[in-house]
Amino acid sequence: MGLLTFTVKPNIPAPLAPLEELSRNLWISWNYEAILLFMRLDHDAWLASRQSPTRMLGLVPQKRLDEAAADDSFLAALSSVYAKFKRYLAAERWYKGPTDRAIAYFSMEYGIDVSLPVYSGGLGVLSGDHLKTSSDLGLPLVGVGLLYRQGYFQQYLNADGFQQESYPENDWYNMPVALCRAASGEPVTVSVDLAGEKASAWVWEVRVGKCPLYLLDANIEANSAPLRQITASLYGGDRENRIRQEILLGVGGIRALNALGITPAVTHMNEGHSAFLGVERIRGLVKGSKLSFAEALQAVWATSVFTTHTPVPAGNERFAPALVEKYFRSTAQELGLSWKDFLALGRERADDDAEEFCLTVLALRLSAYANGVSRLHGEVSRGMWRRLWPGLPLAEVPIGHVTNGVHPRTWIAHDLVDLLDRYLGPGFHDEPTNLAIWDRLDRVSDEELWRTHERRRERLVAFVRARLREQLVRRGATNSELAVCEDALSPSTLTVCFARRFAAYKRADLLLSDPERLLRLLTDTQRPLQLIFAGKAHPHDLAGKEIIRRVVHFAGDPRVRSRVVFLEDYDMTIARYLVSGSDVWLNTPRRPFEASGTSGMKAAMNGVLNVSILDGWWDEAYDPRLGWAVGRGEQYEDPKLEDSIEGTALYDLLEREVVPQFYTRGIDGLPREWIRGMKASMREVGKRFSCHRMLLEYAERYYLPGLEAQARLAGEGHAAAKALAAYLERVRRSWPGLRVEELSSSSPSILKVGDAISVRAKVNLAGMSPDDVCVELYHGALSSQGEILQPRRLEMRPSGSEGASTVYAADAPADATGRQGYTLRVLPRHPALAHPFLPGLVKWG
Q1: 739-745 β-sheet, strand order
Q2: Number of domains in the chain
Q3: DSSP class of residue 654?
């Protein structure tokens, strides 16, 4: 007889019923009054649950629940919080459009709260902030991901300081997830074909304010043991398991939404892991709406957004052609594509049979809208992928940028939020899109801001001491070694934090490059400095693990043992203490390998000053008022030379700028110049790097145009998509014969400012209509190599015909002195195109 199961839920008294609803909506994760409610109910249970409200309710003794149900004071607090929660859900938001067409956001991981461990680092935390902010804005956005049985690994160090990994099991029945059920009561189940084997998955829902997040779980009895491993752990397993994960996420995710009655109008791929969703959307239109592949492609392309996150080539997921064929040969046949044409969707060079299949390339080919996550990363990404658009100038490669942001109420310490609520007014809470409200920060008095910050540093030190003691107990430390914890760090010392993934390019050990110089900074009796490190290395990254070991060994030096700490198992709880309680946030990547980085934004919104290489977000944020830049954005071919120069520059900054400014106090004991930097940092970063600014950009540039395109292309049986596909087929057939036969000017070769140059061109359109193309005059100042710098585009108008050619003319203003040049180019034009920059469709004069 098989195992029979049943579920036990807490016996919550009726007056406390709102607690259960609150515990199952991660709105609680950015509303401290709600967290206080659970802590007040039973602080010991709160700690034992590892800050999970859902689990905690099952740990609270029934006697205590009954007492709280009769406690007028507790019930009043519960009523106040619950009313605030209900007002939040009902309030009118920024988005005023229709809510019946969803924007589906796909990510491999989500860092929403420590109580839901399905994240590893920055990508997941960004995804979590994206959902929270979408809820704040009222966007009709749903998240899609995977539910990992083990999540990401937990980190602990052995006696030598070398990272070890453990993989504890998640108990979903005591976490803020709910199994989606059909009207029959059975779990909503979707399946995907994996090389002839059916993999099934249940769908679980997480509520994030107003936004739902749906997570697929393959660990169910219907699957074989290997298939149950698909959602065993985040980024776990071999290459075969990785492609299975990504098929379940992309293909299974679209099917899960359909099974729930949600047809996504726009999809947003957060990194390339979910790129197969584009193939599934096309397959659905081919099968369900009887479109051809070309027609379905246009309907999907115009409604797809892709965000790339890595400027490191190895970080872009690639698979051997044989592995892709194993899982997608039948799909290609269903789409009516040859196998070579299917592989070309994921290759930079379509005819290179040896090239691997890249999910980033697939996402770029299937998305009209693509972006990097900072200004610098957008530039790097255009350079990385420019071969997909041959003949197009680098600056026009259609990969833009939307610089990342962070969700302020998640990451700003609760006592600082209270201070800001008082001084910035109710709009700080009620109008999160009113970014100008950060300009009111000067209303906050220096004294209150500094005292608030000092309390946070004190809490950080107390937290670190407690965590350090736990670490040492796990390692079997002696009583004398444990006694060191009581003196670890000082609540009044300049505190520098480095916390992020330990990868070699992030250079966590750059600050250790001159140990004796660092030792002098740490042991200065008048103006000391203390360091906190935290972060995980990938389980297979031996170089990253060695950096951790080196840091830990340095921290164990008796001369600095009270000044340097490495915190194990970096997670969102540790991050909150560090970004709010440190004084300086340190970041030392090799430029340009940091795509964006968001931890420095979180710290800056808490008044922590940044010291960073000019990479990622800091490259566009840096201002001497906000912190310090290590170097001036130089890039080096020799890593050793780079480390030497930038290591020295870092020490110089600390010794000459950072330490003196922190310890220079007025007669009132306040570091006035430092506080000015804190205010400037909070004001500018709050305005420019809030996740609300980020979501407004995504909505206005990509989501809203995508929703409009979906309505236009899908109407009348996808008539517009069919027309666009027919147009592109006709244009591609004619394009090789298109010729620019003449480009000339009747104007003199020397002009004066204010004149205009008259340009005439003859273009043989190879049977196309002038309405089918856009003929542009491409002009501007010339470099010494004869290249047009900062080109300007002016559309030329047809003015007649000569034989088989169309004559075009334009007058370009001569409004700048110096050597100028011009040429002509032809691009496709159609009202349904999101943009005209299509691979292979550009012709230069």
Answers
A1: 739-745, 756-764, 805-813, 797-802
A2: 4
A3: I
What's the DSSP call for residue 818? S
- Helix, strand, or coil here: 808? strand
Alpha helices in 12-71 (DSSP H): 17-23, 32-41, 43-48, 53-59, 62-69
Picking from 385, 401, 417, the residue at the C-terminal end of a domain is 401
Report the percentage of the chain scoring pLDDT > 70: 99
Closest CA to 361 of 346, 371, 341: 346
What average pLDDT does this structure show over 739-746? 91
d(CA 731, CA 445): 65
Give the pLDDT mean for 531-535.
Answer: 98
User: CA-CA distance, 497 to 582, in Å (whole number)?
Assistant: 6
State which residues form the domain around 757. 738-844
Distance CA 536, CA 163 (A): 8
Amino acid identity for residue 79 in this structure: S
pLDDT for the residue 727: 97
Residues 425 and 538 in one domain: yes
CA distance 508 to 547: 7
- Looking at the predicted structure, is the pLDDT value of residue 2 above 70? no
Task: Write b or e for each residue in 784-801: b if 16 or more Cβ atoms lie within 10 A of its Cβ, otherwise e.
Answer: eeeebeebbeeebebeee
For 95-162, strand residue ranges (E) read 102-106, 141-146, 154-157
Token pair belonging to 726: 């027919």
Residue 5 banded pLDDT, cuts 50, 70, 90: low
- Total count of residues recorded for the chain: 845
